[in-house]
From TrEMBL:
CDD domains: TRX_family (cd02947). It comes from Nostoc punctiforme (strain ATCC 29133 / PCC 73102). The keyword NADP does not apply. Residues 1-106 form the Thioredoxin domain. InterPro entries: Thioredoxin-like_sf, Thioredoxin_domain. Its EC number is 5.3.4.1. It is an enzyme of class 5 (isomerase). Belongs to the thioredoxin family. GO terms for molecular function: protein disulfide isomerase activity; protein-disulfide reductase activity. GO terms for biological process: cell redox homeostasis. This is Thioredoxin domain protein.
Amino acid sequence: MVLSVSERTFTQEVLESPIPVLVNFEAPWCGLCRIIHPLLLQFQAQCGDEIKLVGVNADQNFKLSTTYRLKSLPTLLLIQNGTVRHRLEGFRGREDLRLALEDIKASYSNYAKIYNTPKTVDLECRSA
């Protein structure tokens, strides 16, 4: 289950989160948003407590949409310590998103290696 955040809860749930947060800006009318949802749930399940996944309805949270300069939906932002570390937009389907999530996990694993955390492989946040 993806935690739904709004302008009211964004600071607490995302910007002040002790772990990186993958923010999925979406809208009910967005077909690609619905298509990628199962892949995001899989990503969340594999990452466990290492990365938090939240959803933001871009139509209902116009200030956030403007603040993060959304050009298309879905747009995914990986935010860590209040800073956008990765921005994913303009992907055309599940395979594009899968490859982008692999890149995020690879860079996250490089960051995590500093703290002696196991390296991530493929689509898994924890090494097998």
